[in-house]
Amino acid sequence: MESWQPVVAAPCDREAEPGPGLRFRRPDRAQTRLLPCVLDDTIWADHPVRLVWAVVEQLELRGFAAGLKVQEGGAGRSATDLRLLVALWLWAATEGVGSARELARRCEAEDAYRWLCGGVAVNYHTLSDFRVEHEAALDQVLTQTLAALMTQGVVKVRRISQDGLRVRASAGSSSFRRRGRLEQRLAQAEAQVAGLKRQRELPASPTESRGQAAARQRAAEERARRTAEALAAVAQVEQLRAQATGGRNSRREPRASTTDPEARVMKMPGGGYRPAYNVQVAADTESRAIVGVTVTNSGSDRAESEPLRAAVEARTGGQVEEHLMDGGYVKFEQLERAEQTGVAVFAPPPARKNSDPYQAQATDSPEVAQWRERMATPEAQTIYKERAATSETVNADLRTYRGLDRFLVRGLAKVRCVVLWSALAYNLMHYGKALLMG
After folding, report:
1. Beta bridge partners of 362
2. What is residue 33's three-state secondary structure?
3. CA distances (Å), 284 to each of 4, 53, 375, in order?
4. Is 111 exposed, middle or buried (0-12, 13-18, 19+ CB in 10 A)?
5. CATH number of this structure's domain 135-171+274-417
6. What's phi and psi for 346, nearest 5 deg?
7. CB 185 within 8 A of CB 227
8. Each residue's pLDDT tens digit, 44-59
9. Mean pLDDT in the chain?
10. Per the confidence metrics, is the pTM higher than 0.85?
């Protein structure tokens, strides 16, 4: 691939200029200029980044301080302000920035990021680590902001809408391999690690420094670790398939990725199959605020409604009375438990040949029969229309503006952190002024 080359303008042809012989003031971009300014003057008074910083200043961020050892008056370099790091990633998420390197570049090149930094230098290593190391603290911040919005009556959880979002994983399809190939690669990787360890015990090589040798060994160890994790993932998939099929052998041998062992191949919105994660989002239908998120590596939504509803109730302390979802979530066992606990499920019954899906079946439990009867009414169908109006809007916002079009991190734990940043950024940009009032 050709490297990028700057475009150099050709010398001006004086005769080709409009009005030859006239005198003009011409731009000189090679001149040096000193532009004294105050950082605060580079951002206008109602710029959205000021709202982000004002909200962050009100948040309780002690959870992000776990692991910090630098104390006031003690030795060592001061840590970067936690409020700054939180504000940077929230502002980046509002603009769909998902790369620590890109964020570090913007901190030097763009006024809004420079304003946030206020002269504090940040590097991409610090930004990258901070983004994915504080899942519990991020979860607590989401709970904290929702509590403020519920106190003001902006957000309710009486009626929620749930939908799934398949997001591309940071792994290629060619990185997925079957058990036999993985075992072979693991043996090769372990042999390479052992060989590199023996080499390091020998006198230093004149062509390779000890630092380079150590880097090669770390890379080999990382390769062996990912391969071992991929083997464990294959065993997990085999176990799940055996439970689902009653022990019958599947025609297709399971595979796992050596790049991201926790990613799974899923059917994507466009109809193709790609390595991805399944992001579940619950939103309040009245305000369209995000009230709950979970991430799984299951390609099916059938088991995801009950866990997310329980998570929403635990996070908000509210009681879900009506749960809207599409037909892919319909699982009679979960539906029965929901109806028994006072939760009315609004989801389309699965279609059947030569049978009315709204008509109770002989095998239906009372809860399922009640659900079918409810969904046949015009009132229920009107309520169900709110699912698309809410969830599709929220999902489109997350995918288009909050960076959930593709993950650049690997592993469920890191992916969950990225999803929480995006959900927080969504709520902040839509309800930031209400958070300030709280």
Report:
1. none
2. coil
3. 47, 25, 20
4. middle
5. 3.30.420
6. -115, 100
7. yes
8. 999 999 999 999 999 9
9. 88
10. yes
